[in-house]
Amino acid sequence: MKTINIRQAFPEDWIRVLHNIANLFYEDTTIVHGDNEADMYFDLAYEVQHNYTVATSATMTVAGQTFTNTYEKQYDTAGTEKEVRIRCKRALSHVMLDCLEQFTGVTQEWGILTGVRPTKLFHKYRKQGMPEAEIFATLQADYRISDGKIELMKEIVERQLATIPDLDNIGREISVYIGIPFCPTKCAYCTFPAYAIQSNRKVGRVDTFLDGLHIEIREMGKWLTDNNMKITSIYWGGGTPTSIEAHEMDALYKTMFESFPNPETIREITVEAGRPDTITPEKIDVLKKWGIDRISVNPQSYTDETLKAIGRHHTVQETIDKFWLSRNSGMNNINMDLIIGLPNEGIEEFQNSLDESAKMQPESLTVHTLSFKRASEMTRNKDKYKVADRDTVAEMMNMAQVWTKEHDYVPYYLYRQKNILGNLENVGYSKVGEESIYNIVIMEEVQTILGIGCGASSKFVNPETGKIWQFHNPKDPAAYIMTFAESIDKKIEQLDELYNRQLVK
Ligand code: SF4
């Protein structure tokens, strides 16, 4: 834990940005001002010059050493007040990052970019008509992103456009997320709405939740039908949507297909079957009956001790068996998730995970980097979990990149999270042509995602202005049961506002 004194009194949102930069180098930094004692001190200055140049400088003093940096960028226009503030924050981040890199010797591959969706930035410049060389130069000079990461962004953007040729116009369609908030047990790193199914079933909460969910699917389906909306993709997540019984899944899919408009035109339906211990031949039959063939069977690791340590309650062998059961039953689009940096895992364990993946060759492989989410059991008891250092984590990410290339996978989406090990990223790889449409549209925020069920967030995207806002269904099944009717009304209000008043001319 480091205390950092930024001597100048900047506005709160500026300090937040600078705090994020400090957190790239140290866990849990505290920012203070003025004469307060600290581990390191920053003198930061900025100036907006008459020719629209923003100039910044930093002097960092730490343990008797001093590091300095200056940066300036000239803009073509004066910019609005808001734009000027953004320019200044970015320029200050630039000089602060440089000083911290000098002192620590750590190079931040993502530069000053601390946001979740780096590829969105690439798309933004592409849509503005910026030539590729200029996009590269801007990402390098203004954001300090490394060449390797920019190449990765470019490759992903190209794959996304090949997968969804109408990506830039898909905002008039909608995708749907449906959340089932139950799992067999809770994984130690998890902050998703995932409640133990057995205990909830005993008190009747699974039944009442499912009753509410049927109603919500029907009501939202009615709005979609009445308003002639086209559905691009549907994603069943949670929790683990296969933790309920086969007949319960069957009933839900029946309601979905009866309620949603023109199901035959939906481009993709995915059901997360993340926990291998929930997959049974009966449930696979139900998925096949409804023509759902994209599922996730998530190993996370192929080391039994790790699975035990993170509370997964299934074995490596069970993952392998359930993968082959699904494959041999005709599931022809299977995703598998791996996590880099799980407790006590290093190069050897990750190599083993890659070797095992090679035997199955799922259509897609999503490589996550462990992140310490605030509310997870792992973060609450951090001392109990020993994780790999920054260099080892980076090496594992590199191994994944090399392995996927060797096995004909291409990266097609990526996102970053707070407190992610090594300030790295999560990357979705797939065989060419097997990319998940849902993963792309949600990551690039190109269309509205209607959230149904527990913990489901609806993200409304105005296709004309790009404005985004959210509505969250409750995470807890008990709260959902009490409030789902109200949530339906609120969402319909938002949808009416977005699609009926603004777009119908
Ligand atoms: S299977 Fe997924 S949703 Fe369920 S507890 Fe584990 S990480 Fe959370």
UniProtKB/TrEMBL annotation:
SUPFAM superfamilies: Radical SAM enzymes. CDD domains: Radical_SAM. It comes from Caryophanon tenue. It holds the Pfam family Radical_SAM. GO terms for cellular component: cytoplasm. SMART domains: Elp3. It comes from the Bacteria. Residues 168-406 form the Radical SAM core domain. This is Coproporphyrinogen III oxidase. PROSITE patterns: RADICAL_SAM. InterPro entries: Coproporphyrinogen-III_oxidase, Elp3/MiaA/NifB-like_rSAM, HemZ, rSAM, rSAM_horseshoe, rSAM_sf. GO terms for biological process: porphyrin-containing compound biosynthetic process. GO terms for molecular function: 4 iron, 4 sulfur cluster binding; catalytic activity.
